[in-house]
Design brief:
636 residues, Rossmann fold, alpha+beta
């Protein structure tokens, strides 16, 4: 048996974007390293026969970032994006299976953002920004590059590539709106097109509109506005004509559960098909008939079919199902899924199950012993049903307790802990379990997997009931003799970092804390974060809401910094635009002012997630060292 090292955690490769050929005989997936060692993330395309007769093999041999594999309707050509010619600028390529020949299909100077092969074998729809002009180049040379916000902002436009000529045309549709997503009707009819007023994350997701585009005539038709953060377009036929489905936030709140919407195209009747469900849709997948729907269902996942009047449950799966792909008939699916002790791999099977694993991209973990992971269910102080996970120290059972316990709050808050392998570069349960800690992974209200009302429960009230939900779980573990009340730690990244900072400002029970890319001032985040309006919905107000004190002040950890006595490890990426570095600087200065023991680490070149290998290794090692210093777990 092998012990877990930081290198084993970050040096692996993970499959992404499994994509079934329409004939069901082949599958392509992207193989991506978990960390980056230079300026580019080198990924690979792999092919595997679905009948299992031939092992996986690389589809391409170049050193490049390759992504978004998609098949032609006849399964003869595999399209994909690659920056092999100009690193950082992806272009569309096509791999012809008959002769194993790869052809570069575009040389668009701005690069290709996304694309969709159409049923017309000669056409591919592209999403790409405008190419730079000679004037743009001259201004860049002269450093005459002042940015006027709101003027000439880049946006993805719909373009058509004629594969016979290589010519790219840009239909005069949608004005200057940013094109988010495309989906063609299965019979080869029009494209459903989702647009936003801007590519700005703070503004665009609230301004979505649906359109129809006819690639033959080049004309468009407006279908009207959609709810915030719309995505995952699908078509299906019904007795009253064609329907369009998509996922979006349940109106009117911006902090809300995701719903599946059903638009009858001819009558314009729109329905929320998931209203009242105690599950949350995460993906829609188009077939030639009724689409498939993936639901976050507590700690697990339900796969269903969207029928005319209801959902038909097809199968239930432990943990998560991600990146669902299907054949046009919907009879065969490919997904990413794993187990409590195995990271995600590509699995194949019928939607009704069972699914069989066809890749093993991390064999180096096969001999590593992990801590026992078990689901938890309990009730909040107000009687709400909650769930989460407990991971015990490696080689120990619950009867061996009490153990030092680290509670790790998840991000989002609209995320969840699913019953899957908890091993990641950020503070993760199995990494700490290997060092002798028990780890509590709570799913407080505000998260995914329990329906809209559960998710909406924290809007304007972050840190309130979601925090007592977490404390109730900690109290349960203390009462059961699993957690040592004198050796409690708390950690989290992003919204989890907020909860960690909030917790130590509200309680002195925790002996050590880790705040990773955490929110400490909701007003400042609404003003400077890339998702400002969403953050304002969580915090409850903005700085321009009038003369304070504001509602967001009452739920911001920085307002209570004078109460903090817990030693704090602050970790943050220097280029984080989601939760900007200023949040960490603010906490650091407050802790310094109040003479609180803390360590502040900034990772250059990193955003909201840490990507570089050496930085990921530092996060893992520093996390363990911090909790070892303050919680001092007993050695075994």
């Amino acid at each position: 048996m092998t012990g877990l090292t930081a290198e084993l955690v970050v040096d692996g490769r993970a499959p992404q974007a499994p994509t079934l050929a329409p004939n069901g005989r082949l599958l392509c997936y992207v193989l991506a390293p978990l960390s980056r060692t230079d300026d580019h993330l080198d990924t690979e395309l792999w092919l595997v026969d679905t009948d299992g007769t031939v092992a996986s093999r690389r589809a391409t041999a170049d050193t490049a970032t390759e992504s978004r594999p998609r098949w032609s309707a006849d399964s003869a050509t595999l399209f994909f994006l690659s920056d092999r010619a100009d690193r950082g600028t992806p272009q569309l390529h096509g791999l012809t299976l008959a002769d194993a020949r790869t052809t570069t299909l575009t040389s668009w100077r701005a690069g290709i953002i996304d694309y969709l092969p159409l049923t017309d074998p000669n056409l591919v729809a592209l999403l790409a920004e405008d190419e730079p002009t000679e004037q743009d180049a001259r201004r860049a040379r002269d450093r005459d590059d002042a940015v006027v916000v709101g003027e000439r902002e880049p946006c993805a436009r719909l373009r058509l590539l004629d594969l016979r000529t290589g010519r790219i045309t840009t239909p005069n549709v949608f004005a200057d709106r940013h094109v988010v997503e495309l989906r063609q009707r299965p019979d080869g009819g029009p494209l459903a097109v989702l647009t936003a007023a801007s590519a700005d994350n703070d503004y665009g997701p609230r301004t979505g509109q649906l359109h129809l585009f006819d690639p033959t005539t080049g004309t468009a038709q407006a279908l009207g506005p959609v709810a915030a953060d719309a995505r995952s377009l699908v078509w299906w036929p019904s007795e009253d004509g064609w329907h369009l489905g998509y996922l979006a936030l349940t109106p009117p709140a911006l902090q809300a559960g995701t719903a599946a919407f059903d638009l009858a195209v001819d009558s314009r009747v729109l329905r929320n098909r998931t209203a009242g469900l105690a599950m949350c849709p995460t993906e829609l997948c188009q077939t030639g008939a009724a689409p498939l729907v993936v639901f976050a269902d507590g700690l697990d996942t339900t796969l269903a079919r969207l029928d005319p009047t209801d959902f038909t449950t097809l199968s239930r799966h432990t943990g998560r199902l991600d990146n669902l792909s299907t054949t046009p008939t919907g009879e065969e699916i490919a997904v990413l899924t794993g187990t409590r002790y195995q990271p995600p791999n590509v699995h194949l099977g019928a939607p009704t199950g069972p699914l069989r694993r066809i890749t093993n991209t991390r064999p180096e973990l096969d001999g590593v012993v992990l801590g026992t992971q078990q689901p938890l269910t309990y009730r909040a102080a107000d009687g709400l049903d909650l769930d989460g996970l407990l991971v015990l120290p490696v080689g120990r059972t619950a009867s061996d307790g009490p153990f030092p316990l680290v509670t790790i709050a998840h991000g989002g808050p609209y995320e969840r802990y699913a019953d899957r392998c908890q091993l990641f570069w950020f503070p993760s349960a199995q990494w700490l379990a290997a060092a002798g800690y028990a780890v509590f992974l709570p799913n407080p209200r505000g998260g995914q997997g329990h329906g809209h009302e559960f998710a909406a429960g924290v809007a304007g009230r972050v840190g309130q009931q979601e925090w007592t939900d977490i404390l109730t779980g900690v109290d349960l573990l203390v009462a059961e003799g699993i957690a040592d009340p004198d050796r409690l730690g708390i950690a989290g990244w992003s919204h989890g970092g907020f909860l960690s900072a909030w917790g130590i400002a509200q309680s002195d029970r925790f002996r050590a804390a880790l705040v990773g890319a955490g929110v400490v001032d909701w007003g400042m985040l609404a003003a400077t974060g890339e998702n400002g309006q969403f953050e304002a919905a969580l915090g409850g107000s903005t700085g321009w809401s009038g003369v304070g004190p504001h509602p967001h002040d009452a739920v911001s950890p920085i307002s209570f910094a004078s109460r903090i006595r817990t030693p704090v490890l602050i970790l943050h990426g220097a280029e984080d635009t989601n939760v900007p570095l200023g949040q960490a600087v603010y906490l650091h200065r407050a802790l310094r002012h109040f003479d609180v023991e803390h360590e502040f680490v900034v990772y250059p070149r990193e955003g909201h997630s840490i990507r570089e290998r050496q930085h990921q290794l530092d996060v893992l090692r520093r996390t363990r060292a911090w909790f070892d210093r303050w919680l001092r777990p007993a050695t075994t």
